[in-house]
Every structure is written in C-alpha cells, then in structure tokens.
Amino acid sequence: MTTDTSQTASSTSPQRSAEGTQSEPQVDPQQLVRSWLNGRARLTADGSVQFAEVHASGRAEKLRRAYDWIATRALLDPYHDMEFGTNTTTGLDTCRIQLPGSSGYASFVLMPLLNLVTNRRLVFVGGPGRGKTTMATLMALLAGATLADVRKGVQHGHPQLTLADLLGGPLPGDLVKAESAEAIHVRWRQWITLRVKIIDEYNRIPTKTQSALLSLMAEGYAEQYEQAVECGPGAWYLTANDDQGGGTFQVIEALKDRIDAVVRCPPLHPGLIDTLADRVAGGATPEEFVPADLVCPPDELDAAAKEVRAVHVSPAVRDLIGLFLGQLDFCRRASDRLEYQTKDTLHLAGKRVGHVCTEDCPLDKSENLCTQTESGVSPRAAQALLHFSQALAYFRGRTEVGADDIRAVMPWVLHDKLPQNPQSPFFQKPENRVFLTDRVSWLWQLFDRAVAQQAAHAPTRKRTLELARTCNAIPALATPDLGRRLHAVRERMDEVVRETELNAVTHSDLVLLKDLYVKCRNELDRRESGT
C-alpha cells in the first residue's frame, strides 16, 4: 500500500523567506486553543481532563473515514455508481456521462460498510482475483478481528465440503465413549460465533451442506447430535465467481432468498497500475495496514446498529416504496378476483407472465411496470431495502430516509430478487434492450418510473389516503360514525373504479379500501352480536 506524503510534508515544512533562509511558521495561539476546544477533551472545574461521549455523528464519521480509506488507499475503486443530487449530463449522444449533483460513492465499497452496521447478508459477485475476499476481510478487520483470526475463519466452498467441515463435530473418541446422544460433545467451529462471517465461493458448497448453512443464516443457530450453537449478531459476506462451471452447485432458492444484497466487483482500471506496481515492490497487502482509528469494536457496532434502526422513514417514503413494490407484483390477467391479481397466482398455476401479458390485457405495456418482471419481491426483501436505506441515510449524516437513499441501495437489494420478463414489449424497443444485460440500470429506471407514476396519481389517490387515515382507530369510533365510514369507503371504491383504469396503483388503493371496509364491517358485526 502506498501513502501520499506530499500534502503532509508541505503542511509541516518551515516557510522560506525571500532571501532563501528558513523562518519559523507563524502560529496563531488563539486559533490553536480553539482547535483544541473543538475536540472531545474538556477541563472540569477542578482542573482535570474529561472526555465527552462519542455520539452517533462520531460513529457515522468513522464509517465515512473507513469508506475514504478503502476507496482511496486500500482497494482504490474509481467507479462511483451511487449518486446523489440532480444529475447533470455531459458528452455526446454516443457517450452520455452522468455527473452527480452532490456526492457519489462506489457501491463495491459502500454497500459492504452498510452491511457491517446492519448485520445482514451480502454477496460479492465477480471473477477470480477481483477483490471479493479482500473486501470481506477488510470488513472483518474493521470489526476488530485480527488478520490471523480472519484468515483462519474464512470458510472456503468446495464440492467435498461436509457438515463437519462447516460446523464441526464430535471427536471420534467421544463418539465411542458416549452412551447417549446427550453425552456427545460437539466441538463447534470457531468461525460460527465471529462478528463477521465469510463464506468464500458459497456456490461450490454441496446441496446438503447448503441446507445447514441456510439454517445458520436464517435461524441464527446450528444443530447436531441434539446440541445447538448460536451464531449471535454479525454480518455475513459471501462470494461467488461469475463463471458457474467447474464443479459448482446450484444454490438452493431458500438460501438465495436469505441474501439481502448483491454487489458486483469493479473491473481493473488502467489508472491503478502504478499503485499495484508499488504494492508488488513493497510486498504488502491492504489487509496488513488497516488504520487503528478506523476499527469499530463490537460495542460500537452494536450502538451504530441501534442508531441505524432509529433513522426515521416518513409516511411519504413508505408510500413510495409500497407503490413501487406493489406494481412489480401486480398482474391484471392472473384472476378476475381483486385479491388474486398477483404474479403468485400465475406461478401456482404453472404459468409465466409472458403467457398472459398479451394484447388481451388492455394496459399499456410500455408504461406499466408489471409487464417487465416475472415476479414481485417478498416482505423479507422489502425489510432489507428499508434497513439498508436507513443505514445509508445514517452514513450520510441524515436523520430521515429520503427517496434518494431508497433509489441508491435498491438495485443491490433487488439484484437477484426480480427475474426479468424478456418477452415484455418494453424490452422489444431497441433503446431498452440494453436493460436485459445491465440489471442495475434497469432497476433504476423501474424506480424512476414508479416515482413519476406516484406524482401522476397523487391527485386521485389523495382522497383514498385521507379516508384511510380517518379509519386508523376503528374500535374507538362510535357506532354511528363507524356506519358512516363504512358507507364512505364503499362510495370511494365505486369512484376509483369509475375514474381510473385497473392498473397496479389502482389495484393497491382498491385492496386498501376493501381492507378498511372489512375491518369496519367486522367491528359492526361484533357490536351487533355483543361479542
């Protein structure tokens, strides 16, 4: 690893006078004292030094410094694909370059850091030698582990990996001596309880062993010989090569569903050759030089995780997320019944979206998002999207999640969750065919269209949302008021059907209104029956 010392040298070297002699630098004593007082140290009344508590901003600032160190010193990623602010465009029609309006970050560096403070599960995808394991190792080192323990704790996937290799097991002598299952002492692998768990090439693990890994990731414990071990809180980092051949196994769907985010490794940039040459000459690796002031011990990570969950998500942002995800799961041709107009209905019948998304469906296939995907996303993926968005807002020093936070993390959370429908008329347009290979840009355009549709439908949805707010406390309403609410909900459903076409946004509002109607009806029935 190289260190740029030019700036430090220039700032500490003495000034030179016009005659060429050195003169002492001029120091403002008052400014120096003010700089001291801006730190954590304070003098008490009795003259002793007291240090203030490290607040949330300090922990978030440490994350930002860790990002800067990795992106500029350790792995040097010049590909900034998470942008904020209003983008400006430069270049020509043949090469458009989008420039961020405010800040920009590299997803390969930022998403692993967000995963560290959310204790979730992230997969690095990329060819061999692209830095997947190195990045995961850096996360473990930032969490306070030693390099020797990290390297010893990395689990390497291979076709012969057994349950005992992954989890541990009893010694042969213990099996011989034991007279019952309770007497067997399982020697669990130490990596299970590490704060950062690294599984290298998890797609090369046999299916049976994948099931054990699934239990550990999903339930937080492993079980053998009627004994169990809990893995505790921690972040998971898994790696997978792009090339799926050569003895790899198909990853079971349940294990894939437990993955919260997928990050792609950046390619080598020619501008990094000088740095790589310096590393070869010095015989050093980034893992050997993690700055001590960037390390976050477990108590700091626990505090940061708690602060992340406290970041506010406004009703407006929640509504946007719900509207966006609802459009992905909607399918008008799946059923005539409102509740079953989803892609899950198609899948249970053994059908694909391409089988029913035809001219028989009156919706505009270029405007409605439902035609572009084969399925929607699970509530688990929606929770991951919210959690990573909170972590990103925390990293940026915000106290509330914004739509830009949702947009920035969304492609990495939904990367492997949304299969495309290549038969969609949307992809048949020449300008949209590139989205079949560039999934990240495809997901961003999906979200941007959802934002535009939210704005377009806002006037007609306003009355529906206001009516929903008046029904928040149904049990507390007097019986006459409850009857009036029931009638108002029924009238509003009729108005929505008359005034708008049955698309995903309308479907979402109708399901909400019917839910309110049923709740009001159930409460009235309960009061009439006296139960």
Structure notes:
The protein has helices spanning 6-12, 29-37, 56-74, 107-118, 132-142, 147-153, 163-167, 172-177, 207-219, 253-257, 273-282, 298-309, 315-329, 343-348, 353-356, 379-395, 403-413, 425-428, 439-470, 479-499, 504-529, and strands at 15-16, 22-23, 41-43, 49-51, 82-83, 88-92, 95-99, 104-105, 121-125, 155-156, 168-169, 187-188, 196-200, 221-224, 227-230, 235-240, 261-264, 312-313, 400-401. The protein has 531 residues and is of the alpha/beta class. A 5-stranded parallel β-sheet has the order 10-13-16-9-17, covered by helices on one side. Strands 1-2 form a two-stranded antiparallel ribbon. A two-stranded antiparallel ribbon has the order 3-4. Strand 14 (221-224) and strand 15 (227-230) form a beta hairpin. The relative contact order is 0.09. Mean pLDDT is 84; it is low at 1-40, 52-56 and 243-247.
Summarize the structure.
The chain has 531 residues and is α/β, with parallel strands linked by helices. It is built from 21 helices and 19 strands.
Q: Give Rg in angstroms.
A: 28 Å
What structural category do the secondary elements indicate?
alpha/beta
| CATH class descriptor of the largest domain | Alpha Beta
What's the mean pLDDT score?
Answer: 84
Count of DSSP E strands? 19
Which percent bin holds the helix content? 40-55%
Major sheet description: 5 strands, parallel
Strand content: 5-15%
Give the distance, in angstroms, between the N- and C-terminal Cα atoms: 73 Å
Shape: globular
Return the CATH architecture of the largest domain: 3-Layer(aba) Sandwich
> What is the count of DSSP helices, taking H or I runs of 4+ residues?
21
CATH homology superfamily of the largest domain: P-loop containing nucleotide triphosphate hydrolases
- Overall structural domain count: 5
Kindly report the spatial arrangement of strands forming the biggest sheet.
10-13-16-9-17
Q: What would the CATH topology of the largest domain be?
A: Rossmann fold
